[in-house]
Amino acid sequence: MKHVITSSLFILLSIVAPESFARTPSVPGEILVKFKSGVSAASTNYSIFRQGAFRVKRLGAGGFEQVQLPDGKNIDLAIQEFLSDPNVEAAQPNYIYKTLATVPNDTQYGKLWGLKNTGQTVNNTGLGGPDSHRSPNTGTSGLDMNLESAWDLITDCSSVVVAVVDTGVNFTQEDLVDNIWDGNVGSYPNGGYDFVLGSNAMSDPNGHGTHVAGTIGAAGNNGMGTTGVCWNAKIMGVRVMDATGSGTTSRIVQGVNFAVTNGAKVINLSVGGSGYDSAFSTAITNARTNGVVIVAAAGNDGANNDASGTPTYPCNYTQDNVICVAALTQSYGLASFSNYGATSVDVGAPGVNIASAWPGTHTTTTETTTGWSGWTLAGDWAYNNAFTNIKGISNPSTYDSSAATYANSADDIAYKSFNLAGGQVATLEFGLVMDLASGDGFSVACKNDGTSPFTAGTTVQSAVTGSTDGYIETLDYEITSCMSATTSIGYRLTSNGAGVDLGLMVGNMSVKTLTYNSTTYNLISGTSMATPHVAGLAALLFAYNPSFTYADVVSAIKNSGDTVTALSGKTTTGRGVDAYQALLYISPPSGVTAESP
Amino acid sequence: MKRRRFAATLLAMLAWTTSCSSTSEIQPSPTETPVNRQPVFAELIVSGTNALSENRLRTALKTLDFQRIESLGSDQFLIVFNTPVSPRELETLLEQQEIQAQVSSQQTYQLPESPGSRPRGKKIRLVR
């Protein structure tokens, strides 16, 4: 019975997937054969010699014998022939094993718990970025993607183009500079395209895309920095999100189509929107038609993507080339922020306290939460510290009296000068609570000479009205064009005289500048960080199995890996990805049944 | 979700005011869409199903007041209108020209926020 099943499987696998035996290296011209117990020495000699082979040696108590095949004899065929011999119990290639666990020499490798979890505590020491680690910041040894075993088989994905459709990539970063896409030999000399600026120049004014790229393909074993899932890679940078991390359908569609047209086999999409978008879906389908795997982030709202009110796209697109990824903690729990979905989110991957490449250093100026000194206020503004969660400037000056509304026909301005000299990028972030009457407006402007930004300045946000429904809305804007030693930033409330409402409050304000360099790394968390672990694995699979289709890659990722309790009922597979198991995964032939002889 | 909706609202408002200058003039706030009228947009995306060319699209749209057509690749195009148009109106026009295509509006996408870095989405009610 056992013989029949074993033999049948070998034969079936040889027919269905003839390359399967070759995928794990074996000694050329050699196989291992085990004869049934009780078979005479003469019979075993005959079985070997009739194949034109000879015995090299017996391998001890296990009963296997090392057999040298005649020159040119196909190993798979020889195994089939031996298995058809009634004296033979088993036959297999003489696999080559290396020292277990290929360990890279990168200086920050010890922080990469997702690749090798030793239960280490992860911090930002030596990375250069701000320490923003999350707690609990320790894990369970062994709960990782099993990359060291996978790297025994393959580390080089440079035959596969992986597109990072994101905020751009700083390809001058020391760990990415050697793994840049060649731009179809010159057409895109900087490794991609910037659809925000419409430019061949490639940079990353946000940092998110560079971090994602580093997880996929930071140069491995180069004695510096971090290690990518792929040690060698061809990363295509496609900038569709602006410096504040915002993008539109048209940019993303352009980016995805660009990646597909220019040969990407894997697209990392660590972005999210809440509505079904037929144009985006069409681009995903176009990618599938061209055999491209899309790896998407589940989202960081801690929400159920299956629920009708909280879907996240592209995660929720149902095309079979999409893999949606949740974030796992260092103990393989579902991260508290991670979205999930029993029918929409597929797998989990490391997404908490992830160290990777970063485009440069940030300087953050946080406006004081008490006093707000230095502001020029015109109109009914007040420095307001009345609320626990937001302290800033308010209009009107008193909210909590029964008559506190802003004045009819108001035109109230508040601005302040900040030193934003140095660096290449500046962004503004603030919290806003607003209740304005229809037709009235809140606007934001900046200017580079310290005077009122509402006089010949640059509009950052043109007038908007309405209500934030009582919630603090955090808003982000790029203000690079106003950068100087005296950058004035201002807020304005205007009333059209037709009616009034409660007013607005601005607080939690910070201004951040970025100075590019090539040596910075950073530690951050998110499903955005889990996603590139899977995108890198998809690239490994394509590189390891050049004949694989997108469906093979998706199948290998979804159907291998270990069951993770925290993902049970929260993802389609209940699995955390395992690179080694994915590389060895062979789709079982359909319709196979074992029969008794 | 609240934050997403507000961001989407901002984008929609920007679409309404797309023709406004980028100087310090306060722009008029968007007006309400009239009852029983399809929402109109300054930018729409056309996803063609079979080798749709920019020239064919340009010809088909000659009755509309549009500023430019931008290829997004793979038979997809962004159309920027001077006078906003509803998706249904554009779809009908394309059908009349025997162009098979889906029409959709721009949506906004965010990076999933780096979680927990600051208070977000906290509710504080402004009270009278």
Give a short account of the largest sheet of chain B: 4 strands, antiparallel
Q: Give the largest interface.
A: A-B, 95 and 60 residues
Strand content of chain B: 25-35%
Please mark out the parts of chain B with pLDDT under 50 across 5 or more consecutive residues, or reply none: 1-35, 117-121
- Tally of contiguous helical segments of chain A: 11
Arithmetic mean of pLDDT of chain B: 72
Low-confidence stretches of chain A: 1-22, 587-597
Cα radius of gyration of chain A in angstroms: 30 Å
* Strand tally of chain B: 5
Q: Please give the share of residues in helix of chain A.
A: 10-25%
How big is the Rg of chain B? 18 Å
In words, what does this structure look like?
- The complex is a heterodimer of chains A (597) and B (128).
- The N and C termini of chain A lie close together (6 Å).
- With 597 residues, chain A is an alpha/beta fold.
- In chain A, the strands form 5 sheets. Chain A has a 9-stranded mixed beta sheet with strand order 6-7-5-9-10-11-12-27-26, with helices on both faces. In chain A, strands 14, 16, 17, 19, 22 and 24 form a 6-stranded antiparallel beta sheet that branches.
- Chain A contains 11 helices and 27 strands.
- In chain A, strand 16 and strand 17 form a beta hairpin.
- Chain B has 128 residues and is α+β, with helices and mostly antiparallel strands.
- A 4-stranded antiparallel beta sheet of chain B has the order 2-3-1-4.
- The longest helix of chain B is centred in the first third of the chain and has 15 residues.
- Chain B is globular, with a radius of gyration of 18 Å.
- Strand 8 of chain A pairs antiparallel with strand 5 of chain B, so a sheet runs across the interface.
